[in-house]
Specification:
The structure is a homodimer. Chain A has about 350 residues and is of the alpha/beta class. Chain A has nine helices and 17 strands. Chain A has two domains: about 120 residues, NAD(P)-binding Rossmann-like Domain (Rossmann fold); about 150 residues, Dihydrodipicolinate Reductase, domain 2, CATH 3.30.360.10. In chain A, strand 4, helix 4 and strand 5 form a beta-alpha-beta unit. Chains A, B: It holds the Pfam family GFO_IDH_MocA_C3.
């Protein structure tokens, strides 16, 4: 079958899918939006346009929908689409919480339609470099992985600044950053979740979070996002007993850092630094730390839609399973609870 | 009175005090060590040398001692010194735990001698820059302060690698890094302590830790140390709703970073980065983030011993109070418990 996609919600991400899904052979069958401005845009761009989701869902030419409406509408739209017999792709977060997701999944199962979520950041090159280092043991036993995303852009936009619409950065990006960690180390169980979540610039919604996952493979994952840390720290830092890896940014600048044998048994000499005497934190001799290039990875986000096409033609399993989406939402719920109580949430 | 110091333990730090305490007018009255090599060194350096602490403590010319023995001996030596009527300065950590400290303090009170701990890193310029920014509100409402200390030196030395002697990095440096945070924000109560503590390269003792203190002033302090993170991250990062401060290293390179008004309401445009579409994490326009120099501070570690001299002459209060030392040890105990149980420890 050809995937004939209906786009429900023609804002920024709706337009993005309209432009990019065809790269996998997906046909944009129709779009809808309740906003007259966006309706007009859709018409001008040559798409078949409906003024409501209900009307789009009655179009027999649409066999699959992508939900690019604000987060709080995902559940309602998903269930309506399933009941109309359409396969459902949601933008992330798939749902506002685990309970909503379970209702959505039940509706899709009942209707016999496919259900997945656009966790597109599983194809991010920066993350895949760290995953490759983990999979191939390039750093030895890894003890810490830091995933950081900092911005100087400060304020969020549109419905993202309202709590009732599912705004805030945990929903917008936390769902990606947690998913990336669990995707990177799928065998690892989560021992505990601890979180610090703040509203720095926004009244209603979080714009800073740190979520710490202690995993049973010896790795502790530190996920941090801020819309207002102005000197951006590296996108990724992973450290093991054989080296440290840094990926600075989306552009994947960075290195692996290693020490020579010379450093393993330094003479126990106290050095006077500008902040007093220290032995352990004295400067490393020149040449003592050497760099290697990062491992190379190939990635293509279009594989998300290619996989959807394959699944709908019985040729592949879904790359984004609802059980995985559910696990991420469970971590998000644990993070909210941790931040509220200041306690760590024991997990799995 | 003149401070006539007996140095108990003539290893690296014993020699360091011998060299540096005189800068505050302190007289080195005697030193002792049980190691014949160090005894010989002391003689060659012209110090009055005793082969045991007991003999040094019988020297009436010594009125004050500094304990530069391995950590597990601090309690025993402190109590012996107090009973001999000597004022006591301990190297840090003052004690192995709160209970030991309480016994030491009781012995000093009973003997009517002064008791303090050499928390010399309260005079570190890098920390004082952050403290000044906090005190003067240079960053607005601060939401995160990161204190990081990374080294490529890997292995520790001598007794620091043995648990029974009080080895490991929480004892060696955690005691400083926690003390600095509490010294920086003395009015703030600690709501919870969460910690991740690991042995990366060492069999018995910790060489990596992350300790998170949620404070009731809105700041969360993240303290991290590793002897084997090879691309050193900034010594300090503090971020508030009016800017971000970075102090890169002991040498105090760094800046304050601020945004202009232009960034406060960016147009809600999705940008295609090398890792897919994003609005919030799109690059900031050139010139959008501006830098200012760090605030300047003057500091002089010699004030530690000058204060000891003043205290012993009734002219000042101690700058390092045992109640503060006790609070730091309490946080260390909470951190150990947190790391062991994976739970956060509610505090104060």
């Amino acid at each position: 079958m050809n995937v004939k996609l209906g786009i429900i919600g023609f804002g920024g991400m709706g337009k993005w899918h309209a432009q990019n899904a065809p790269r996998a052979g997906v046909e944009i069958a129709a779009v809808c939006d309740i906003d007259p401005v966006k309706q007009q845009e859709a018409v001008e761009m040559g798409y078949k346009m409906y003024p409501s989701a209900e009307e789009l869902l009655r179009d027999d030419n649409v066999n699959t929908v992508i939900l690019t409406v604000p987060n709080y509408l995902h559940k309602e739209m998903c269930i309506k689409a399933a009941e109309a017999g359409k396969h459902v792709i949601t933008e992330k977060p798939a749902a506002m919480n685990v309970q909503e997701l379970d209702e959505m999944e039940a509706a899709c199962k009942k209707a016999g339609v496919f259900f997945t979520s656009h966790q597109n950041r599983r194809w991010d090159k920066d993350m895949l470099i760290v995953k490759k280092a983990y999979d191939e043991g390039l750093l030895g036993n890894i003890f810490t992985i830091e995933s950081k995303l900092h911005s100087g852009n400060g304020y969020m936009h549109e419905w993202h600044i309202y709590k009732k619409y599912g705004g805030g950065m945990i929903y917008d990006w936390g769902v990606h950053l947690i998913d990336q960690i669990l995707f990177m180390m799928p065998q690892a169980k989560i021992k505990s979740v601890y979180a610090d979540i703040k509203n720095v610039l926004h009244e209603e919604v979080d714009d800073y979070f740190k979520i710490i996952l202690k995993l049973d493979n010896g790795v502790t994952a530190h996920i941090e996002l801020s819309t207002y840390i102005l000197e951006y720290q590296p996108r990724w830092l992973a450290a093991g007993d054989k080296g440290t890896l840094v990926v600075k940014n989306f552009g994947c600048e960075g290195n692996i850092y290693r020490t020579g044998k010379m450093l393993e048994k330094l003479p126990p000499q106290i050095t006077e630094t500008e902040a007093g005497p220290t032995r352990q934190f004295a400067p490393v001799p020149p040449g003592g730390i050497v760099t290697e290039p990062l491992p190379t990875v190939e990635t293509d986000w279009v594989n998300f839609y290619r996989n959807v096409v394959d699944v709908l033609n019985g040729k592949a399993e879904s790359l984004i399973k609802i059980s995985e989406v559910r696990r991420v939402l469970s971590v998000m719920e644990a993070a909210w609870k941790s931040a509220e109580t200041n306690e760590a949430i024991l997990f799995e």
